[in-house]
Amino acid sequence: MVFSGLVRSVCGKFAHALFVVASSGAFASVAGAAPLTFLVNSPVDELDFNPGNGICETVAGNGVCTLRAAILEANAHAGADTIVLQANVTYLLTRVGIDDIARTGDLDVTDSVTIIGAGPTTVIDGNGAVLGDRVFQFDKCIGGGYMSVCATGDVVATLSGVTIQHGYSAIVGGGILNHATLTLQNCVVTANTVNGLNDWGGGILSDASLTIIGSVVSNNISGGHNAYGGGIYSQGPLTIESSTISGNTTSGSPGAGGGLIILGGAKSLIRNTTISGNGATTGGGIYSTINSLSVVNTTISGNASTEGGGGVYSKFGPVGFYNVTIVKNTANSDEIKPGGTGAGIFNEAGATLYLANSIVADNAVLIPTDGKPIRDPDQCSGYIASLGGNLLSDVDAGHCSIGGPYSVTAVALGPLQNNGGPTKTHALLAGSAAIDAGNITGCLDGDDKPITTDQRGFRRPYGPYCDVGAFEASDTIFLNAFELGV
Hints:
This protein is mainly beta.
């Protein structure tokens, strides 16, 4: 599947972005100008009076700076500017219409910028079907445009400490459409929808570099029209660190990647992250067609697919899972017909998937009956290359084969909850078979570097060998200042 050309062709307005911005006079600054900081002091959705004069205000001399006005000024001013938003304020987008110059509809970013909020209470609201557009679009080229090589330079943008919600796009990218080098830090991307034509990326669609740190992507929807990626659709370099991807859905056919879909040849990394409660037709948690994906110290739990791959669906590879916990995922979740397999991991024929020091347990396929459906244990489908230290609760040799050392055993786990650290985990209970059961040569990531902490950031190993999975058991942990035994 190669989509990048189609992304731009179906979004016809993209091809005209550079011409529109240049002809509007919105980009008319001297190269090398000192960066500016715009302090937004009004939640209304009004235009800047004179984009390019370096002053954010809706009327000359009134001192009222809105988010849209600040975006217009930052776009018009050369250099990496900063926009600062207020705490406990919702910036509701109300200017109906679709353009590529940030005057109506979404907020089009055409120059490098850092947008800083005060945390989850700083909300940028796309106003759903009223606006009928996503919340943000980040262009690749300064001044607008999507060429492979930008004559004016590439856009580099950061969103920090904001909630992005209620975007609604009829085509690709419900909350955020990214063609730039974009970082989301301590952000929430929630309750966004793409529904209409090519429903790709309910929360985020990125065909460029995307880094997500300490953030939550939750409850986003990719509709049933050629749908991919309920939470995230990524077709470029992707890094996700210490984040949560939860409650996102995609449906219909192919309906791939409830939490996220990762495509293309760019190297990608998911680390110290929880992917839980997502749903799809295939690949409830992760759907990967990428040539290089490494997943480290991550929990993939409670995801569901109506067909195969409740937790993970891998199409090509190589994909590697290192100290990962893959548990309680479900395939054939709609109970309509049997046939879904690989409730934990589905690896297509010919694809390469490595597993090291990881837990794959308590995953199940729902088999419809006249009464209550039967939960049939099913951990994997296809061929898994084991690098050692892996624990599986069972292996159905009828559709899963594992090359390399592994153990079949029950693994005593606690519920998915806050056990310390920024994301939820499954604690290893006392006496768990996973304790000190990692490779005696040490737990290594996909680059053969030692994994020195667990998903929560706690020291690893605690004991002679590292524990299997994303959680490293110690004598005690602290949860909300209360000491708990582990």
